[in-house]
Amino acid sequence: MTPSELFDLTGKVAVITGGAGGIGVAYGRALVEAGASVVIADLNGAAAAATAKSLAGGGSRALGVPVDVTSADSAQAMAAAATAAFGGIDILINNAAIMTDLPPYGLSNMPTADWDRVVNVNLRGPLLCTQAVLESMGARGGGRIVNGLSAGAFMAGGIYSVSKYALHGLTVNLASELGGRGINVNAIAPGFVDNDSGYASLPKDSPFREALYATIPGKKSGPPEDLVGTLLLLCSKAGDWITGQTILVDGGWISRL
Ligand SMILES: NC(=O)c1ccc[n+]([C@@H]2O[C@H](COP(=O)([O-])OP(=O)(O)OC[C@H]3O[C@@H](n4cnc5c(N)ncnc54)[C@H](O)[C@@H]3O)[C@@H](O)[C@H]2O)c1
User: Fold this and answer.
1) CA-CA to 4 of 20 to 30 Å: which in 35, 72, 96, 229?
2) What's 215's DSSP letter?
């Protein structure tokens, strides 16, 4: 197989939750360029439709749909829309998350409603969306699921870290459970991403950002496009033998190289 054949996604159908956000748009563009048909699913349905239109260039290989990943019915409707438009689902990217609108509390004094709000989107959402696509993936002989983790999972960063660390656990457990059905489940954990959400969670000129950069041996930060190579690896033939992994794309920050 040639390198381009290894990464070719022609004929595949991918669903990206949170697809209208900064990283989701970069993922959508890459998957379309690799040959896949792409469903951009987002809480902001209008933004999802606009993103899909911009990706497809008005063509027929991208569709925007509204979804609330915290609702099983909504996740099922998203999967049904993907199947109706493109015939089935091969790839699910669980990318939607609450990252900037986090509760202003530590864990020790957090109201349960705030805990539920974050955990529902960041953890329950990926589970519900996974459940919603399994029938279609099974009918197509297998598939790929990629969870949007964060380097923040592996440090003490409050409810966001807890939700992302739990998503690592969900990744490992789903990989174990679904491997026999030909479904690989992995995660990408980015470090500092140069986009609006990244800068909203830690301002560009914050001295704290500079202090953290000093602990990163490799590249300090990168645009969403720097995550695309890892995404394509995990979604394509090139990643056939990879499952249950969380891949840190963070310049060696968390591994303390
Ligand atoms: N930006 C960073 O610095 C960074 C770093 C590490 C990890 N991440 C992770 O990458 C992923 C994408 O981040 P981003 O920077 O593109 O963020 P973003 O805020 O730009 O995009 C998130 C998207 O998720 C959508 N969303 C939120 N709640 C939803 C729900 N209930 N149902 C459906 N969609 C919903 C939002 O509408 C938004 O379009 C997230 O999982 C985030 O935790 C981001």
Assistant:
1) 96
2) T
Domains and CATH numbers, the chain: 3-247 (3.40.50.720)
Catalytic residue among 160, 165, 199, 213: 160
pTM for the model: 0.98
How many angstroms does the Cα of residue 29 sit away from the middle of ligand 1?
16
Spatial neighbors of 244 by CB under 8 A, at least 6 apart, are: 171, 172, 175, 176, 179, 185, 186
Q: Distance from the CA of 5 to the center of ligand 1, in angstroms?
A: 30
Mean pLDDT, range 90-111, rounded to an integer = 96
Q: Could you confirm whether 160 is annotated as catalytic? A: yes
Q: What is the mean pLDDT of residues 14-18?
A: 98
Confidence of residue 253 (pLDDT cuts 50, 70, 90): very high
Q: For ligand 1, is residue 43 a contact (CB within 6 Å)? A: yes
